[in-house]
Amino acid sequence: MIAVLRWGHRIPRDSRITTHVALTARAFGADAVYVDTEDKELEETVNSVVRRFGGPFEIKTGVNWREIIRGWKGTKIHLTMYGEHIDDAIQRIPQGDILIIVGAEKVPKEFYDLADFNIAIGNQPHSEVAALAVFLDRYTHRKGLRKEFSGGEIRIIPNPRGKTVVEEHVSRRE
Amino acid sequence: MIAVLRWGHRIPRDSRITTHVALTARAFGADAVYVDTEDKELEETVNSVVRRFGGPFEIKTGVNWREIIRGWKGTKIHLTMYGEHIDDAIQRIPQGDILIIVGAEKVPKEFYDLADFNIAIGNQPHSEVAALAVFLDRYTHRKGLRKEFSGGEIRIIPNPRGKTVVEEHVSRRE
Protein backbone atom coordinates (compact mmCIF):
# COMPACT_ATOMS: atom_id res chain seq x y z
CA MET A 1 0.00 0.00 0.00
CA ILE A 2 1.19 3.49 -0.85
CA ALA A 3 -0.25 6.26 1.33
CA VAL A 4 0.45 9.99 1.47
CA LEU A 5 0.18 12.05 4.66
CA ARG A 6 -0.32 15.76 4.11
CA TRP A 7 0.71 17.72 7.18
CA GLY A 8 -0.01 21.39 7.96
CA HIS A 9 -3.03 21.84 5.71
CA ARG A 10 -4.67 25.21 6.31
CA ILE A 11 -8.03 26.33 4.92
CA PRO A 12 -8.35 28.28 2.67
CA ARG A 13 -4.66 28.97 2.15
CA ASP A 14 -3.72 25.43 1.09
CA SER A 15 -7.01 24.30 -0.47
CA ARG A 16 -5.79 24.19 -4.05
CA ILE A 17 -2.28 22.93 -3.34
CA THR A 18 -3.59 20.10 -1.14
CA THR A 19 -6.11 19.22 -3.86
CA HIS A 20 -3.17 18.97 -6.28
CA VAL A 21 -1.28 16.82 -3.75
CA ALA A 22 -4.26 14.46 -3.42
CA LEU A 23 -4.93 14.15 -7.16
CA THR A 24 -1.23 13.68 -7.85
CA ALA A 25 -1.12 10.91 -5.25
CA ARG A 26 -4.02 9.16 -7.02
CA ALA A 27 -2.74 9.66 -10.56
CA PHE A 28 0.78 8.42 -9.76
CA GLY A 29 -0.32 5.21 -8.12
CA ALA A 30 -0.90 5.90 -4.41
CA ASP A 31 -3.87 4.22 -2.71
CA ALA A 32 -4.79 6.86 -0.14
CA VAL A 33 -4.17 10.37 1.12
CA TYR A 34 -4.53 11.46 4.74
CA VAL A 35 -4.82 15.14 5.63
CA ASP A 36 -4.30 16.44 9.16
CA THR A 37 -6.98 19.15 9.05
CA GLU A 38 -10.62 18.24 8.56
CA ASP A 39 -11.79 19.55 5.18
CA LYS A 40 -15.09 18.24 3.83
CA GLU A 41 -14.85 20.32 0.65
CA LEU A 42 -11.47 18.79 -0.17
CA GLU A 43 -12.88 15.30 0.46
CA GLU A 44 -15.79 16.03 -1.87
CA THR A 45 -13.50 17.36 -4.62
CA VAL A 46 -11.31 14.27 -4.51
CA ASN A 47 -14.21 11.83 -4.19
CA SER A 48 -15.87 13.42 -7.19
CA VAL A 49 -12.75 12.74 -9.27
CA VAL A 50 -12.81 9.13 -8.04
CA ARG A 51 -16.49 8.78 -9.02
CA ARG A 52 -15.85 10.22 -12.48
CA PHE A 53 -12.41 8.79 -13.30
CA GLY A 54 -12.36 5.66 -11.17
CA GLY A 55 -10.72 4.18 -8.14
CA PRO A 56 -10.01 2.76 -5.73
CA PHE A 57 -8.56 5.77 -3.93
CA GLU A 58 -9.28 6.89 -0.40
CA ILE A 59 -9.12 10.31 1.22
CA LYS A 60 -9.38 10.92 4.98
CA THR A 61 -9.15 14.37 6.52
CA GLY A 62 -8.90 15.39 10.16
CA VAL A 63 -6.59 12.49 10.96
CA ASN A 64 -4.25 12.26 13.95
CA TRP A 65 -0.93 12.46 12.13
CA ARG A 66 1.14 11.23 15.08
CA GLU A 67 -0.96 8.08 15.34
CA ILE A 68 -0.67 7.45 11.62
CA ILE A 69 3.09 7.87 11.57
CA ARG A 70 3.70 5.88 14.78
CA GLY A 71 1.29 3.11 13.75
CA TRP A 72 2.67 2.71 10.26
CA LYS A 73 4.20 -0.76 9.80
CA GLY A 74 6.04 -0.08 6.54
CA THR A 75 8.61 2.47 5.44
CA LYS A 76 8.15 6.16 6.27
CA ILE A 77 9.50 8.69 3.82
CA HIS A 78 9.59 12.40 4.58
CA LEU A 79 9.94 14.56 1.50
CA THR A 80 12.05 17.64 2.27
CA MET A 81 14.44 19.82 0.31
CA TYR A 82 16.99 19.28 3.10
CA GLY A 83 17.15 15.51 2.74
CA GLU A 84 19.28 13.08 0.74
CA HIS A 85 19.02 13.48 -3.02
CA ILE A 86 16.46 10.99 -4.33
CA ASP A 87 18.94 9.51 -6.80
CA ASP A 88 21.40 8.75 -3.98
CA ALA A 89 18.77 7.07 -1.79
CA ILE A 90 16.16 5.38 -3.97
CA GLN A 91 18.07 2.09 -4.17
CA ARG A 92 17.96 1.76 -0.38
CA ILE A 93 14.20 2.32 -0.05
CA PRO A 94 12.54 -1.08 0.24
CA GLN A 95 9.49 -1.93 -1.88
CA GLY A 96 6.38 -2.65 0.18
CA ASP A 97 4.04 -0.54 2.30
CA ILE A 98 5.15 3.05 2.25
CA LEU A 99 3.93 6.27 3.89
CA ILE A 100 5.03 9.48 2.20
CA ILE A 101 4.91 12.57 4.41
CA VAL A 102 4.45 15.89 2.63
CA GLY A 103 4.49 19.07 4.67
CA ALA A 104 3.10 22.50 3.93
CA GLU A 105 5.70 25.11 4.96
CA LYS A 106 7.95 24.36 7.93
CA VAL A 107 7.44 20.98 9.62
CA PRO A 108 8.17 20.00 13.25
CA LYS A 109 11.72 18.78 13.89
CA GLU A 110 10.46 15.38 15.00
CA PHE A 111 9.52 14.54 11.39
CA TYR A 112 13.19 14.17 10.57
CA ASP A 113 13.53 11.49 13.27
CA LEU A 114 10.16 9.76 12.85
CA ALA A 115 10.89 9.15 9.16
CA ASP A 116 13.02 6.24 7.96
CA PHE A 117 14.25 8.41 5.11
CA ASN A 118 14.36 12.16 4.57
CA ILE A 119 14.39 12.52 0.82
CA ALA A 120 14.97 15.61 -1.31
CA ILE A 121 13.68 15.78 -4.86
CA GLY A 122 16.65 17.98 -5.53
CA ASN A 123 17.93 20.39 -2.88
CA GLN A 124 16.25 23.46 -4.32
CA PRO A 125 12.98 25.06 -3.23
CA HIS A 126 10.07 24.15 -5.48
CA SER A 127 6.80 22.41 -4.72
CA GLU A 128 5.48 19.54 -2.63
CA VAL A 129 3.27 18.61 -5.59
CA ALA A 130 6.30 18.28 -7.87
CA ALA A 131 8.23 16.41 -5.18
CA LEU A 132 5.44 13.89 -4.62
CA ALA A 133 4.95 13.30 -8.35
CA VAL A 134 8.62 12.66 -9.03
CA PHE A 135 9.05 10.53 -5.92
CA LEU A 136 6.13 8.28 -6.92
CA ASP A 137 7.32 8.17 -10.53
CA ARG A 138 10.76 6.97 -9.44
CA TYR A 139 9.52 4.68 -6.68
CA THR A 140 7.03 2.87 -8.95
CA HIS A 141 9.55 2.72 -11.82
CA ARG A 142 7.16 4.79 -13.97
CA LYS A 143 4.39 2.23 -13.50
CA GLY A 144 2.31 4.41 -11.17
CA LEU A 145 1.40 6.60 -14.14
CA ARG A 146 0.05 3.54 -15.98
CA LYS A 147 -2.29 2.46 -13.18
CA GLU A 148 -5.69 1.27 -14.39
CA PHE A 149 -8.68 2.63 -12.50
CA SER A 150 -12.08 1.00 -12.35
CA GLY A 151 -15.67 2.03 -11.70
CA GLY A 152 -15.40 5.52 -13.22
CA GLU A 153 -17.72 7.13 -15.76
CA ILE A 154 -15.11 8.85 -17.89
CA ARG A 155 -12.04 7.57 -19.66
CA ILE A 156 -9.61 9.64 -21.68
CA ILE A 157 -8.11 8.10 -24.79
CA PRO A 158 -4.69 9.58 -25.62
CA ASN A 159 -4.95 11.89 -28.64
CA PRO A 160 -2.07 13.78 -30.23
CA ARG A 161 -4.32 16.56 -31.61
CA GLY A 162 -7.42 17.05 -29.47
CA LYS A 163 -9.66 15.46 -26.88
CA THR A 164 -11.14 11.98 -26.90
CA VAL A 165 -13.34 11.30 -23.90
CA VAL A 166 -15.30 8.09 -23.51
CA GLU A 167 -18.24 8.13 -21.15
CA GLU A 168 -18.95 4.73 -19.73
CA HIS A 169 -22.37 4.22 -18.23
CA VAL A 170 -22.46 0.92 -16.47
CA SER A 171 -25.85 -0.71 -16.82
CA ARG A 172 -26.79 -2.67 -13.76
CA ARG A 173 -28.96 -5.76 -13.89
CA GLU A 174 -30.69 -6.66 -10.70
CA MET B 1 17.04 26.76 -23.94
CA ILE B 2 14.13 25.36 -21.97
CA ALA B 3 11.27 27.82 -21.36
CA VAL B 4 7.87 27.39 -19.76
CA LEU B 5 4.81 29.39 -20.80
CA ARG B 6 2.10 29.59 -18.16
CA TRP B 7 -1.25 30.44 -19.74
CA GLY B 8 -4.46 31.54 -17.99
CA HIS B 9 -2.88 32.87 -14.79
CA ARG B 10 -5.47 34.62 -12.64
CA ILE B 11 -4.76 36.72 -9.57
CA PRO B 12 -5.28 35.80 -6.76
CA ARG B 13 -6.79 32.44 -7.67
CA ASP B 14 -3.63 31.00 -9.24
CA SER B 15 -0.97 32.88 -7.29
CA ARG B 16 0.35 29.93 -5.34
CA ILE B 17 0.01 27.34 -8.10
CA THR B 18 1.80 29.57 -10.59
CA THR B 19 4.54 30.18 -8.01
CA HIS B 20 4.93 26.40 -7.74
CA VAL B 21 5.01 26.15 -11.56
CA ALA B 22 7.77 28.77 -11.75
CA LEU B 23 9.90 27.29 -8.96
CA THR B 24 9.46 23.79 -10.38
CA ALA B 25 10.59 25.07 -13.78
CA ARG B 26 13.74 26.50 -12.17
CA ALA B 27 14.51 23.51 -9.95
CA PHE B 28 14.09 20.96 -12.77
CA GLY B 29 16.39 22.72 -15.20
CA ALA B 30 14.34 25.24 -17.20
CA ASP B 31 15.91 28.61 -17.99
CA ALA B 32 12.84 30.85 -17.97
CA VAL B 33 9.15 31.08 -17.24
CA TYR B 34 6.73 33.37 -19.06
CA VAL B 35 3.32 34.18 -17.57
CA ASP B 36 0.49 35.68 -19.60
CA THR B 37 -0.90 37.93 -16.86
CA GLU B 38 1.23 40.72 -15.37
CA ASP B 39 1.99 39.86 -11.73
CA LYS B 40 4.73 41.87 -10.00
CA GLU B 41 4.31 40.00 -6.73
CA LEU B 42 4.93 36.68 -8.49
CA GLU B 43 8.02 38.13 -10.19
CA GLU B 44 9.34 39.32 -6.84
CA THR B 45 8.74 35.93 -5.19
CA VAL B 46 10.60 34.08 -7.93
CA ASN B 47 13.41 36.65 -8.18
CA SER B 48 13.92 36.45 -4.44
CA VAL B 49 14.46 32.67 -4.75
CA VAL B 50 16.95 33.32 -7.54
CA ARG B 51 18.82 35.86 -5.39
CA ARG B 52 18.96 33.49 -2.43
CA PHE B 53 19.46 30.12 -4.16
CA GLY B 54 21.13 31.17 -7.41
CA GLY B 55 20.51 31.41 -11.09
CA PRO B 56 20.41 32.08 -13.91
CA PHE B 57 16.62 31.92 -14.18
CA GLU B 58 14.33 34.47 -15.76
CA ILE B 59 10.68 35.28 -15.12
CA LYS B 60 8.59 37.56 -17.34
CA THR B 61 4.92 38.28 -16.67
CA GLY B 62 2.34 40.07 -18.82
CA VAL B 63 3.71 38.51 -22.00
CA ASN B 64 1.84 38.17 -25.30
CA TRP B 65 1.47 34.41 -25.38
CA ARG B 66 0.54 34.22 -29.07
CA GLU B 67 3.72 36.06 -30.04
CA ILE B 68 5.81 33.79 -27.86
CA ILE B 69 4.32 30.61 -29.29
CA ARG B 70 4.37 31.80 -32.90
CA GLY B 71 7.90 33.22 -32.61
CA TRP B 72 9.36 30.13 -30.95
CA LYS B 73 12.00 28.51 -33.18
CA GLY B 74 12.31 25.23 -31.34
CA THR B 75 9.86 22.52 -30.32
CA LYS B 76 6.55 23.46 -28.69
CA ILE B 77 5.09 21.04 -26.17
CA HIS B 78 1.61 21.45 -24.74
CA LEU B 79 1.06 19.52 -21.52
CA THR B 80 -2.52 18.25 -21.34
CA MET B 81 -4.23 15.21 -19.84
CA TYR B 82 -5.80 14.58 -23.26
CA GLY B 83 -2.52 14.18 -25.12
CA GLU B 84 -0.26 11.26 -25.97
CA HIS B 85 1.17 9.43 -22.97
CA ILE B 86 4.64 10.80 -22.24
CA ASP B 87 6.21 7.35 -22.40
CA ASP B 88 4.84 6.81 -25.91
CA ALA B 89 6.09 10.17 -27.22
CA ILE B 90 9.29 11.13 -25.41
CA GLN B 91 11.55 9.36 -27.91
CA ARG B 92 10.17 11.52 -30.74
CA ILE B 93 10.71 14.85 -28.99
CA PRO B 94 13.95 16.34 -30.29
CA GLN B 95 16.56 17.71 -27.90
CA GLY B 96 17.22 21.43 -28.36
CA ASP B 97 15.21 24.59 -27.68
CA ILE B 98 11.89 23.71 -26.17
CA LEU B 99 8.83 25.69 -25.06
CA ILE B 100 6.54 23.92 -22.60
CA ILE B 101 3.00 25.30 -22.44
CA VAL B 102 1.15 24.80 -19.17
CA GLY B 103 -2.45 25.93 -18.93
CA ALA B 104 -4.57 26.76 -15.90
CA GLU B 105 -8.01 25.20 -16.39
CA LYS B 106 -9.42 24.91 -19.92
CA VAL B 107 -7.18 26.17 -22.72
CA PRO B 108 -8.20 27.52 -26.17
CA LYS B 109 -8.57 24.87 -28.87
CA GLU B 110 -5.81 26.45 -30.93
CA PHE B 111 -3.21 25.28 -28.40
CA TYR B 112 -3.67 21.73 -29.66
CA ASP B 113 -2.72 22.84 -33.19
CA LEU B 114 -0.03 25.40 -32.32
CA ALA B 115 1.88 22.78 -30.36
CA ASP B 116 4.20 20.28 -32.02
CA PHE B 117 3.27 17.74 -29.36
CA ASN B 118 0.33 17.43 -27.00
CA ILE B 119 1.69 15.38 -24.15
CA ALA B 120 -0.12 13.81 -21.22
CA ILE B 121 1.72 12.95 -18.04
CA GLY B 122 -0.75 10.14 -17.69
CA ASN B 123 -4.34 10.57 -18.83
CA GLN B 124 -5.75 11.26 -15.39
CA PRO B 125 -6.58 14.62 -13.83
CA HIS B 126 -3.90 15.83 -11.41
CA SER B 127 -1.76 18.96 -11.44
CA GLU B 128 0.12 21.12 -13.89
CA VAL B 129 2.91 21.36 -11.31
CA ALA B 130 3.27 17.56 -11.23
CA ALA B 131 3.04 17.38 -15.01
CA LEU B 132 5.76 19.97 -15.53
CA ALA B 133 8.08 18.33 -12.99
CA VAL B 134 7.79 14.86 -14.49
CA PHE B 135 8.05 16.15 -18.05
CA LEU B 136 11.29 18.02 -17.26
CA ASP B 137 12.63 15.07 -15.28
CA ARG B 138 12.08 12.73 -18.25
CA TYR B 139 13.15 15.23 -20.91
CA THR B 140 16.45 16.04 -19.16
CA HIS B 141 17.08 12.37 -18.33
CA ARG B 142 17.02 13.27 -14.61
CA LYS B 143 19.85 15.76 -15.09
CA GLY B 144 17.59 18.82 -14.63
CA LEU B 145 17.39 18.03 -10.92
CA ARG B 146 21.19 18.10 -10.69
CA LYS B 147 21.57 21.55 -12.21
CA GLU B 148 24.16 23.73 -10.49
CA PHE B 149 23.12 27.30 -9.76
CA SER B 150 25.45 30.19 -9.21
CA GLY B 151 25.43 33.57 -7.52
CA GLY B 152 23.09 32.58 -4.66
CA GLU B 153 23.60 33.20 -0.96
CA ILE B 154 22.28 29.90 0.33
CA ARG B 155 23.19 26.34 -0.46
CA ILE B 156 21.61 23.23 1.00
CA ILE B 157 23.82 20.26 1.70
CA PRO B 158 21.91 16.95 1.57
CA ASN B 159 21.39 15.59 5.09
CA PRO B 160 19.62 12.34 5.96
CA ARG B 161 18.61 13.55 9.47
CA GLY B 162 18.20 17.31 9.57
CA LYS B 163 19.07 20.57 7.88
CA THR B 164 22.45 21.72 6.66
CA VAL B 165 22.37 25.18 5.15
CA VAL B 166 25.49 26.98 4.00
CA GLU B 167 25.30 30.72 3.66
CA GLU B 168 27.75 32.01 1.14
CA HIS B 169 28.59 35.67 1.37
CA VAL B 170 30.65 36.65 -1.58
CA SER B 171 33.27 39.17 -0.57
CA ARG B 172 33.99 41.64 -3.31
CA ARG B 173 37.37 43.31 -3.68
CA GLU B 174 37.29 46.55 -5.57
- Overall structural domain count of chain A: 1
At the first level of CATH, what is the class of chain A?
Alpha Beta
Mean pLDDT of chain A: 95
Helix-strand string of chain A: EHEHEHEHEHEHEE
The amount of beta strand of chain A, in percent, is 15-25%
Radius of gyration of chain A: 17 Å
Name the chain pair with the biggest interface and residue counts per chain: A-B, 54 and 53 residues
Number of strands of chain A: 8
The number of helices of chain A is 6
Overall geometry of chain A comes to globular
- Mind telling me the CATH superfamily name of chain A? SPOUT methyltransferase, trefoil knot domain
Structure commentary:
- The structure is a homodimer of 174-residue chains.
- Chain A is an alpha/beta fold.
- Chain A has a single domain, classed as SPOUT methyltransferase, trefoil knot domain (Alpha/beta knot).
- Chain A contains six helices and eight strands.
- In chain A, helix 1 packs parallel to helix 6.
- The first copy, chain A, is globular.
- The mean pLDDT of chain A is 95.
- At the A-B interface, helix 1, strand 4, helix 4, strand 6 and helix 6 of A face helix 1, strand 4, helix 4, strand 6 and helix 6 of B.
